[in-house]
Amino acid sequence: MLDDAHKGRFGKSCQTCHSSSGWKTVRFDHARDAHWALTGAHAKAACQSCHRGALYEEKLGKDCLSCHRADDVHEGRNGARCESCHSTAAWKTVRFDHGRDTKFPLREAHAKLACEACHTGPVHEQTLGMACADCHGKTDPHRGQLGTDCARCHSESSWRAHVRFDHDLARFPLLGMHATVACEECHASRAFHDTKRECLACHAKRDVHERKLGPSCAACHTPNGWALWKFDHAAQTSFALHGAHESVACERCHRTPVADFITLPADCNGCHSADDVHRGGFGSNCAKCHGETAWKDLKIAR
Asked: Which residues pair with 22 in a beta bridge?
């Protein structure tokens, strides 16, 4: 037994493998005699690299993990059938096709991800959805406001690059100066629907009228320029401006902030009661005597 390179691990029946014609002549066929063919790198491995104990006492499994569990970088998450992806030619030779074998092709940035980035649990037990939100829902900066189909705006090449959102198809088309404003000017966060559509939601601090002309900035102003405005008092209200009224500044009549609709009285006394030298002695209809050109322009004979 001094010549036994196996040190007794393979038993005493040397003739099972060796012949008397020469010690190095081995007739043992692993596929035929052990029912497990040695292919690829397995055929080059020394017997003792797998058979480390007594041959006829040791029970070796035929699945990959019986020998390669310590080499399993997936830590068991991808199951025990290593041959689904790997070949015996080389451990790093992978033949798994994600698009063919799972019906979810990995393109662009997805193709660069490690398996564990998506498969966080046992691959044959964990069911992963194929919708964007199934993986990205928890990190959705829009908080679900834009739905679950991320692909409507984003591409697989980069989450932040090549965003194809068209604001003109939203509830607030970008017109005039709005089209040149950076997104962050209006959207403090990516929960876009949190941003209100009313003018004062963004422009309250620049409202030189201090809300005395109401919250509807669009009644006078346009998105083409804040200083470009046009208001027709006769057409847009029930009180046409004639005579001296035409040259009066808006704030002379509109003196208090308005939260909703402007409701100013249309009768003379509504604005001029403090100017009434008659102290109400001639009633509230000033227009019977006075004209709009000038207060002292009377329509009655002296």
From this structure: 19
Backbone torsions φ then ψ of 49, nearest 5 degrees = -70, -25
Residue type (1 letter), 225 = G
**How far apart (Å, rounded) are the C-alpha atoms in residues 6 and 51?**
10
How many other CB atoms are found less than 10 A from the CB of residue 286?
Answer: 20
What are residue 226's phi and psi, to 5 degrees? -65, -35
What span, in angstroms and rounded, lies between the C-alpha atoms of 50 and 88?
15
* pTM, to two decimals: 0.50
CA distance 285 to 290: 9
- Quick: pLDDT tens for 196-218: 888 888 888 889 999 999 998 98
Q: How far apart are CA 209 and CA 258, in angstroms?
A: 10
> Each residue of 207-244: b (16+ CB within 10 Å) or e?
eeeeebbbbebeebbebeeeeeeeeeeeeeeeeeeeee
Which candidate, 267, 268, 264, 238, places its Cα nearest to that of 253?
A: 264
Q: Is 145 helix (H, G, I), strand (E, B) or coil?
A: coil
Residue position matching structure tokens 């014609």:
21
Question: In this structure, are residues 195 and 187 in contact, taking their beta carbons and an 8 Å threshold?
Answer: yes
Every domain of the chain and the residues it spans = 1-60, 61-98, 163-197
d(CA 186, CA 177): 13
